[in-house]
Amino acid sequence: MAQESLTPELERTVAAAADAAPAVAALDPRDRAAALVAVADALEEHRTELVEIGTTETGLTTARLNGELTRTAVQLRMFADTAIAGDEVDARIDEADTEYALGARPDVRRMHLPLGPILNFAASNFPFAFSVAGGDTASALAAGCPVIVKAHSGHPELSDATAQVVGDALRGAGMPAGTFGLIHGQENGVAVLQDPRIMAGAFTGSIAAGRRLADIAAARPTPIPFFGELGSVNPVFVTTAAVAERADDLASGLVTSVSGSAGQLCTKPGFVFLPEGHGLDAAIASAAENVAEHRMLGPRIASGFARRRDEILAADGVRVIADGGVRLDDDEQGWVTATVVAVSLDDFRRNHDALIEEAFGPLTIIVETPAGTDLASLLPEFFAGNLTGTVHLSAEEAAGSTGNRAELAALVGALSRQVGRVLFNGWPTGVAVTPAMQHGGPWPATTNDSSTSVGSAAIQRFVRPVAYQNAPEAFLPAALHDDNPLGVPQRRSPAGDSTTWGDAARR
Amino acid sequence: MAQESLTPELERTVAAAADAAPAVAALDPRDRAAALVAVADALEEHRTELVEIGTTETGLTTARLNGELTRTAVQLRMFADTAIAGDEVDARIDEADTEYALGARPDVRRMHLPLGPILNFAASNFPFAFSVAGGDTASALAAGCPVIVKAHSGHPELSDATAQVVGDALRGAGMPAGTFGLIHGQENGVAVLQDPRIMAGAFTGSIAAGRRLADIAAARPTPIPFFGELGSVNPVFVTTAAVAERADDLASGLVTSVSGSAGQLCTKPGFVFLPEGHGLDAAIASAAENVAEHRMLGPRIASGFARRRDEILAADGVRVIADGGVRLDDDEQGWVTATVVAVSLDDFRRNHDALIEEAFGPLTIIVETPAGTDLASLLPEFFAGNLTGTVHLSAEEAAGSTGNRAELAALVGALSRQVGRVLFNGWPTGVAVTPAMQHGGPWPATTNDSSTSVGSAAIQRFVRPVAYQNAPEAFLPAALHDDNPLGVPQRRSPAGDSTTWGDAARR
């Protein structure tokens, strides 16, 4: 079934992944977990050299990249625990039942099995955590799937160096050859995505590129799921009472969130709705002056940001609060600080088309709302899906004891319909890597919002359900054995259960 | 955001569903459950009239349609219990943690919320269970989503009558106007599928129609998930020892499974791999003679089956064991019994293209395999994804105590990679409606095999995850409250959990 269009090198990589798939799937989850921990340990052993390459290639600071490498190692270890816990297996056992409501019921047992080879398109802005050994790779390996990473062109050397560390660690841990592969080049990525042996795709990047790849995945003779994490403008809503309570904290928190990593984060707050007359201009300007100049990831991203920033500054009614600028150096690298502008709600509505598109860099737009504005209605009016939405409340409002409680609940409800994560009294950058994290949201935040790309639930993207009916134990996967040797959560439906269906709902 | 292309009537239906969505989502799960039980009770109250309309429109027997109505009522009550149990919510609570491995962790709580309005394309062959009040509708309502059903053209009168019963019951149970709607016509279905207010699609029908609709859903400006349950040929493998043990049971079981509902079931076994010299011809022919003639669903399906049957009978090397025929009556309705043919593995391989496509009707192809055939390798050689795959073993083989255990395990492994349900010593028709059932499989069995269209797990198709970060309890959904007033399963991650990540994998 090899595609003729693959080069010999790509063919070897894809064939190796396909050949490895049954063996990787059949491994005891503890063996997969041990391999993930071995990768985490190896990354930390090679920390100094990897961070050095990364700093040179991306312009991100040593502190940031050290933190990101730590995050990458921690999430590999989290997924090791996730694989052992086996929540994603969702093991269900229906006991055979001669008294079943629809005639005798067989013994049916259902679990989730790994999909097979996954193609993971790495991101530019997280050269460790969303790249070669990042969350997509870790979650797919934890699920029991071989992974092919398409390296991002922004850090090819780091990708090769990381792949060497990952490959060696996996081999050392006894994982089958073909468990992990690395490829370079956009066209190669598209060719592999179209190969029938690839069972799912993951991606972190722009809306345009993500849409193109998602369309390719959907149009294949055999369509596959494609989990793209794309753009987001992350609206923030601040109440009058919150401004009155902590103006300076809000100003400095906003500037820190907008300018961190030169604003090159998919969770950067792009729009902040503040009450008219908020009086934060001076505090914001002052906080922005203290932001150190930061190099952007590369010349293309810098020129794109400069262009987008110019468009926003040229729009009618835009007032500049902090003018971060973009300075190009002799290598055409862009150096930036924070740009903060403000616009009235009326002007925002009039110039919506010019203002709404994401500026990928350290810029945010404050929208000043008149008293009495129905904030909940602004969400469907102005925004499509987003990764996050944030509400800043006063202590009294948070307690639910103020007169505007219903309005605030309506705002939270509207957010929950349009975003993947609703934050209170914080800032959306700095995504915690935890079991309950949700990093994903309605289009165009992601191409598929049934799951997350951060946190342990991300493992669910790479499994599918299979049921076994009247299976002898000799041919049943261990997760479905009655004595539960893997200790996974099992949901048993005892014989006789159907006799009470519907009763709980009758009052 | 109304589309101009919708007729006024469609616009009213879609607008009503969109307007109802937040209210339906906000209902206490017990209220949704009570509404589902009310629909189940109402269907049973109107049983006689509904079954009468259905028999006339579809040619299915009164016994079959009575059973199907009971199944429909039972699954509505099962989904009532499912909604109350709240497994699909997958509530997760990360406790805030100042000692977290990556710096202080906020309080993060994640649950699944309803997607919003669902468009459900009803099936021809299950006028109750996969139609107006069927599993797709029941699971979407249980999830908290309004539903618009596109009626199947094969039973329009029954669809209208059922919709009247469903609508009255939902209104009587206090559900918001717009919770349920019915539309007719293929073009209308496509127009509504393209409407931005529709958040997901469900479908049961042919591969061609399902692919067309899935492509439309994927190509929308805002792509949506589309859960199509399409075609399947359901391969069955019978060992030599199983034939030796119970030849007559196998012959009669096969004929019953192939001919039930005139073979118009997506789980009908289309291919049966039997050892050469199985000696079952006489028993199969005799069982087939006892099958009563059955009317097919409609003239188009009958003529399609007659054509496909002729093609198969004309293929090289095909031997007729039981010749069911197709008799057309004066209304061009087709009447059928079971057709069973056999072909050698060599001829099957040679004429694969002519034989492999599904025959939607009471026909099965026995493929006779020489001793020593590697059965596991036949699956990827001949088949794409399927809803089911079946293995018939002898008692000794099932115990795992025979010399061919490894081969059989390889066959089961190959099946688990290509189908959604693996059966042992049974027949795939007659899908149990239970918590562990899986009805779905890799393309082209379904357009999206991350879930099921039968069984309580089907509710998971219509929800998406949302996280709340540092949310005051006043603005947090009840399923995520610490005191858990809804009693849903909550997965708590205590502070300090990250300190041990990876430890369990170190040996």
TrEMBL record, chains A, B:
Q: Which SUPFAM superfamilies match?
A: ALDH-like
What GO molecular functions are on record for this protein? oxidoreductase activity, acting on the aldehyde or oxo group of donors, NAD or NADP as acceptor
Alphabetically list the UniProt keywords. Oxidoreductase
What sections of the sequence does the record tag as coiled-coil? none
User: Is Endoplasmic reticulum one of the keywords?
Assistant: no
**Aldehyde dehydrogenase domain: which residues?**
9-368
Q: Where in this protein does the record put region Disordered?
A: 481-507
Q: Does the keyword Oxidoreductase apply?
A: yes
Q: What is this protein called?
A: Aldehyde dehydrogenase (NADP(+))
